[in-house]
Design a protein that fits this description.
Helix content is 49%, strand content 10%. The chain has helices spanning 6-15, 55-62, 86-93, 110-114, 128-137, 151-174, 178-198, 209-220, 225-234, 245-260, 269-278, 284-293; strands spanning 45-48, 71-74, 79-80, 84-85, 98-101, 119-125, 143-147. α6 packs antiparallel against α7 and α6 (151-174) packs parallel to α8. One of its GO terms (cellular component) is cytosol.
Length: 294
């Protein structure tokens, strides 16, 4: 594990604990931490666990050090301005490298995972042989990986579900009852399915851990940052004009999806309505009323 903070590396190596982020979780004995990027030169399989805004910068930094035909697995979630999905942007940055997607694309939060809870993840890889090698890494663990062939589709649905979690939070903050909640959730699932078709992805991605599994967990669980953001917006907190954390991520993704679906806006009322909230053109209450009617 390559980390930025030397104190974190020392903590992992000497005490098997990441005291900065998860001090109550014991890490595996054979996990070693380092601070030098050059360590990737010894690995045939590299997992990129960095924020989406940093992923291309990190990829460019490790590119000269990667082995020939190395396998790089993206764990970040996000959309890209030009290529839409991060796997396509990584393929441009790392020509000749086998690109894959795994881990955070599934119903899993870090703490239950590290405490041994059975957890599902979706793996999508452009090389089926290398896919089997990645799956072998998880043999005997509490992780149950599944495979899907649509790499970009998995990347897309994993990023888009964060936007829908904000929407679910807004609606739950305004009207907290099971009837309304699951009416809105049904609309969310239907609109996400239409988005997959609109962008040419395999709609069966919807029925993976990365799709419905992650979407339901993130939309309905109060430990989700994006759902919490929606709850705060729905309760009147003015996070719309702020520019940090999930606010920035949510605004960027919503704006990008709105731009790409402008000609068919009527098919995507949830996305376009959320963009109007972020742009200050509609209140959360007006947004909720429009969804509850249609």
């Amino acid at each position: 594990m390559i980390v930025r903070d030397r104190a974190v590396a020392e903590s992992i190596n000497s005490r098997r604990v990441n005291e900065k982020y998860l001090p109550d979780a014991k890490l595996p004995r054979d996990l070693k931490a380092a601070c030098a990027l050059e360590e990737v030169s010894t690995a045939g399989m590299v997992f990129l666990a960095v924020p989406s805004r940093s992923i291309l910068e990190t990829a460019a930094a490790i590119r000269p050090m990667l082995q020939t035909r190395a396998c790089v697995i993206n764990l970040a979630k996000g959309l890209h301005e030009e290529t839409l999905t991060l796997d396509r942007a990584l393929a441009n940055e790392l020509p000749g490298v086998v690109i894959g997607s795994l881990s955070l694309k599934g119903p899993n939060f870090a703490r239950p995972l590290l405490h041994g809870a059975p957890t599902g993840m979706t793996l999508a890889l452009s090389d089926l042989t290398r896919s089997k090698e990645v799956l072998q890494v998880f043999e005997g663990s509490n992780v149950s990986p599944e495979e899907h062939l649509d790499l970009s589709g998995v990347e897309f649905v994993a990023a888009v579900k964060n936007v829908f979690a904000v929407i679910m939070g807004i609606c739950d903050a305004i009207e907290d009852n099971p009837n309304t909640r699951f009416m809105i959730l049904s609309k969310i699932i239907a609109e996400c399915h239409r988005l997959l078709i609109h962008f040419g992805f395999d709609p069966s991605v919807m029925f993976t851990y990365a799709g419905l599994g992650d979407m339901l967990m993130t939309s309905l669980n109060d430990t989700s940052r994006n759902r919490t953001l929606g709850l705060l917006i729905g309760r009147g907190f003015n996070f719309v004009t702020q520019g940090a954390g999930p606010v920035t991520e949510g605004k960027k993704a919503t704006r990008l999806l709105t731009q790409h679906t402008i000609a068919t806006a009527g098919h995507f009322p949830l996305i376009h309505g959320l963009n109007e909230i972020f742009e200050g053109q509609k209140s959360p209450q007006e947004y909720f009323k429009s969804l509850a009617k249609g």
